[in-house]
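Re: folding output
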Amino acid sequence: MQLSHFIDHTLLKASATPKDIVKLCNEAKKYNFYAVCVNSCYVSLAATELKISNVKIASVLGFPLGASSQNAKVCEAEQAVNDGADEIDMVLNIGFLKAELYKQVQDEIAAVKKAIGNRPLKVILETCYLTDSEIRKACQIAKQAGADFVKTSTGLGTGGATENAVKIMVDEVGDSLKIKASGGIKDAATVKKYIAMGVSRIGTSSGIEIVTYTKKDTDEHTY
């Protein structure tokens, strides 16, 4: 198993500079990560840096609160795609979900999916703010809206991925949607654990440490 192929190499800090994004892209090429995950203002820069590579570009939208208007999210998605995004990671409207405004949540996800066409749409649930039943409901809504993935976290909430949240997501929609675990994932053992549970993608800013440690560990056991 090549862990790098599961990893979205991520930099979403407010303080990230263009120089930091160039570095991120160079690292993604060097370590053969599946994608970089960046804020939408940096999609065009990432597209330039990665044009002669197999590394995909994922852009977040409505990030990190999910509380932008539907029109704003759609416009951001369209701009990101125009700038070169291959995938979109959108934060659903958490407040609407908790208020049981399910139609509004579903309509918003469907509108973003329509805007990006056949590109993968990952819906960030921000599970740290949700009950188990709300996680299940969010998964059902994402599926009904035509999303391709459900994703645990932004990495900027009160908590990141947990085994409990991932298990609920896999049990609820793992037969029809892919699962992305993100937030607080810093070591190879955790990555392997989530992959074994059924996760298809890992979002992390610790990708280099994860794959370097794995290679070192493998080499040590060769002798």
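--- second protein (sequence, then structure) ---
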Amino acid sequence: MQHRIIVLGAGYSGAIAAGRLARRLRREDVAITLVNAEPDFVERVRMHQLAVGQELTPRPFSEMFAGTGVELKLAKVTGVDADRKTVTVDADGPEELPYDTLVYALGSGWNTQGVPGTAEHAHDIAARPGALRLRERLAGLAAGEPVVVVGAGLTGLEAATEIAEARPDLDVSLAARGELGDWLSPKGRRHVRKVTGKLGITVHEHTAVTSVGADRVTTADGRTLPAAVTLWTAGFAVHPLAGATALETTGTGQIVVDDTMRSVSHPDVYAIGDAALVMGPGDKPLRMSCASGIPTAWQAADSVAARLTGGKIPHAPLRYFNQCVSLGRKEGLIQYVTADDRAVNAALTGRFAAFYKELVCKGAAWGVANPTLGIPTRSRGVVAATPETSATPLRPAA
């Protein structure tokens, strides 16, 4: 009987994990099902580009996984019963899917932080629907109308600069809770200030937004900033589904895993990407990002394959090398960091940095679109079932 593997979510981490499992394991031994609500891959790191009217390359899952043995199920995940080892999905109606191994990769979404008026009046670019709504709204703005981007982390910086470059006729401002680029090196901070100044972006530093209205935002110090459009980029929140299960989770809903991405409470469940609490160098949790999600997907897929085939579990390098920031289409910043994500003095800036960031984005998309290439082929040889695997383990492939 085939070992049933279900992967929930087909973002960067989920899609890569499904493809890597297909490459590692033999089709006659495993049935791999990838559950996702949309039929094509969404390049989340490009949502700011989509929001200003740029067209993105379509990447249908039906083409990406053709011939791999991965079955795509278009459905919304509505529940996980980790004790009964079932997943409930809804496509044309509710359906229960049993699994032997579950890879949970439902990721994260918009986080309003509970700030009054944000859900009703602000826009988001955490996913494609939000980016498309913002795109329509921006297209309808007249020259001189104000746009406020709340949150000056990587997402906010990229969004503000992209909007200001694409629509120089708009009055774009950026509300930063602290100093602009305060996590960057001095060189990085100088470059961010230079680019935002050149693009005409008004930066409000040390500014906490306490409420969002239809045409304004209000700050903690009582100021009112006019806003025909407010874009809220102040963090992400994990999908709430895991927190409603028997899985051990953190207070924020992330699944607690060991260094192989395996749930510490349910050994048949692996969690990856934003959905998992993964400890990196310095015993610090990895931040929610594509840079974190991809290596956790490698680790989970390799761990599952090794346990099912009786092989040795390899360990992916869960560390950081740089932060890649696009600042419009013509400018960028590559901030080099320590393994635990602290900025060092080295940084690349300007057009070369923009080109570098574009290569990184294309490389990540290529890895998702070609998930079964570039890694060892399938293993052979069935091993006996053990309590640890809780299923019938398989063969290493050829």
